[in-house]
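Tutorial, part two.
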Amino acid sequence: MGNFWTGARKTLKVLQGKTNTAIESGKLHLEINQLNGRIGSVYKEIGEYVNKKNEEGYRELPLSDDFISEKLNEVKYYKKKIEELRLQNEDLFTHEKKSSSGTESPNEEEAKAE
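Running the prediction step on this input gives:
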C-alpha cells in the first residue's frame, strides 16, 4: 500500500508540473497576442498618418519621416519581444521534457522495489 501512495504522490507532482507549464505557456501566449495587437495599432496609426498627409497634398513620404521612423522602430521592438517570448515558451516545454524524461513511472519504481 505504501508503494501506491508513493506512486500517487509522484504522479501528482508530474501533473502539477505539467499544469504549471501550461499556465505559464498560456500567460506567454497572452502577452504575444497583446503585442501583436499593439503592432496592429501601430500600423493603423501609420496608415492614418499617411492618409492625413495625402489629404494635405503630400504625394511622397520618406521612411525617414520622424513619425513613420518612430512607429517602425516600435514595430521592431514589439517583434523582438514576441520572438523572446516564443523562445521562452519553447524553453518551458524543453525543460519539462528533460525533467520528465529522466524519471521513471511510478509502476516502474514499484517493480524495482519488489
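The longest helix spans residues 2-55. In part three we will examine how such features are distributed along the chain.
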